[in-house]
Task: structure prediction
Amino acid sequence: MIALWCAVVLGAPALCVALAWTRLDVERLRSAGIVASAVMLCCASLALLVPELGDWSVAGGLLRVDALSTVLPALAAALWLFTVTVTPRMTLDRRSLQRIAAATTITTLMFLSVNPWALLAASVASVLNARGALKPVDGAPLKIDAYLVGSLALLTAGVVLATAPFARGTRFETVGLALIAAGALVRQGVAPFHAWLPAAFDHGRLGPAILFCAPQVGTYVLAVLVVPRAPAELLRVVAMVALVTSVYAAALALVQRSARRACGYLFMSQSSLVVAGLDCTSHEALTGGLVLWLSSSLAFVGLARCVLVLEARRGPLDLTRHHGGYERKPLLAVSFLLLGLSCTGFPGTLGFIGEELLLGGAVSDFPILGFLVVASGAFTGLAVLRMYFSLFCGARSEVVRLDLRAREAIGFAAMVTALLVSGLFPAPSVRSRAAASSLLLQLRTAPEGANAPGPAR
Amino acid sequence: MNAEGALHLAVLTALAGPAALLVVLGVGSLAARRLPERVVARMTSLSMVVCVAGLALALGIYGVARLPPSLWVARQWFATGAEGLEFDLSLDGWSLSFALIAAVISGTVGAFSYRYLHREAGFQRYFTLFACFVLGILLVALAGSIEVLLAGWELLGLSSALLVAFFHERRSPVMNAMRVFGIYRVSDAAMLIAAVLLHHSAGSGNLSALLLAARPVSAAALEGAHFTAIALFLVVAMAAKSALLPFSGWLPRAMEGPTPSSAVYYGALSVHAGCYLLWRAEPLLEQSPAARLLVGALGLATALYATALARVQSDVKSSLSYATLTQVGIIAVEIALGLKVIAFVHLVGNACLRLVQFLSAPNVLQDLHGLERPAAATAGEAGPPSLWVFSLERGGVDTLVDRLVIAPFVKLAGLADRLDRRLAGERQPRADRPAEETGK
Result:
């Protein structure tokens, strides 16, 4: 049963990668992608319902599902399904569909492994897969590659140091874990290693940039390699840096002129909050961070895809102008607003639950800095409303067609519904993430060499 | 079913009315279905009748059965070990009375709005936000835990900002809505901080210690410093929501919305929500002289400020809004003085009076062919010339906020943005600088 589950979850995106080499036209490839991602989503969700699929390990932990990762393959599948469903025709080609499927395969492999070398290999593959698409389309001389290569170099050095037999229990192991954390922070866009992220959103291809960032694989690396073994001081430093970044990025999102760049800063703010939650080490904050990981990934992808859909119809979006169009397409406007509100932790959305838990836990660990979560939420709310007003309010435009295709409309409506329903009935999500949080805390207190995810295993 | 069960059922029914309306109209928006005006109007009427009937029944049961004030855990949202989030409602004579008054006022505005907004492009959008508002104000009125209060508080803020921007084809309502929302976010943030402090001090977000005047319980659970901190953050939340100084600048900007929404938000309910919150948290103020003093000072200053400004307004809606604010300031002073009953009666009376004045203003304007007058005509009504100029400039509150908060923030953010671009290797073109930096 486990083999079959793995075959479907990993085989569905891999099959679509292979299909992209055939002569199928783009719309058929998209249809195949939609079917394959839906099958993958259904199958991955079984890990939440069938206990046997929710806790197993093969090949000495090379592939493994535990309380932390039960929901993550389903997250990767949901992001894939949503992406192929709502991506506008003009921004989609054979190579993009292949890249999306390959990104899903790599992300799923990462989520199913706790082996540091496997995670490193998957990180390299992920960067190589996205590298071409993240290059500036306008030829701007950016240093995105340098940041990503730097991230991989830090990860490599960290994994080598932390897994070396001589390093166990010594200061070298701590240095190794710190390097892994630094590599993950670069990937997540946490200050001061963040400058590549808004630039990639602004100058690169937006679709691939969204998919490269949204699953938050850097957070996963932190959760399985660093959190269980790192000293509390290291985690505290990472959490503090992440808390400051979340406010910094949300504040900068508020003053951006380019909608793409504002999206980049919003993602930075959200991912920093998740990182802060994971590194607070209290059960409540950890649960909040994990819930926020799910909600922010889904909400951010939805929000950024709204921008992409609008951009495909209107060209570059300047936030100092009011573009109008609410009357023509209220669904997109309402979806944008609700997805943005979920990012801000608005009551009734899953983001509210995550942020409530995170705030409570963060304030326990950091009585003053913990309140930065509140500031971050306030700035994010303002940034989202400013974007909403700019993108959908203003004089009516009769020239630009905003009509959504049925698949786009269904995609956005489904994403909003999922976030609202999981926010109004959050018990299953919270229970699942609370179990993951307990597991991570248990691993932190487990004796040396115990069966724990991490470089020493 | 016993009396308590009947009370719970009646309250749930009342809340279900606006919640169902919000779901139906919200799903309609998501499905991109524009419902006929008549259908929207009938659904709104039905939901408001259910709401008012439910609350009237609840208040009747509460009074006849002589039930004690209680905190009802209507539903547990989730629990993670010792932590959890509950949907608590505070059921007592005061909360049920205020909820009933709010429902009656909202129902009246709803009925008025059908005709006022007839054939308006945003008819359905208005009633979706209206449902959001009614649900929000009921949650604020009945909140038994600070999370429920927060949920209602944020619903009020969002629906208010979106209604200010109702005529969103024009730039000015949208810009003003942004400003209003900015102040509301300050209020929400203060409320959230109070919520977290309460959680950490008392071990739960339960408001019974604050609202039901169970002072021995609250004194045992909370220390003096915590009392003061929670009280001060609640005062900030209340001041921002009720437009007390120094947050008064948003009130005239909020008049850009349709008149019915101005009536219900800035004449009747939303602007009084902060006062109601303080009124409920009076046991907390008793324990915190600093917060009490702050409420009194803010209330007094706001009353004087608003009464001066009300005399120089050139349009009837702004004039009425400042008249409302004058009374809100006085209500805050009454609460600070501990005059609970007088404050409650004043609050309800002012809400009803302003509702009628706001709703009748358009008719009076039409009958008299305009009541609006140029600002110059108000010279002499506001006292000496210096006070007149001060009032015309609205006390410079907005200018101060611009100079002390917004301008430094934008400048700092611009610097940070340039640094980020440089770190990414980008040479920033002039046209792509941060928005506000270019003055647009």
Observations:
- The two ends of chain A are 26 Å apart (CA to CA).
- The CA atoms of residues 322 and 390 of chain A lie 4 Å apart.
- The longest strand of chain A covers residues 56-58.
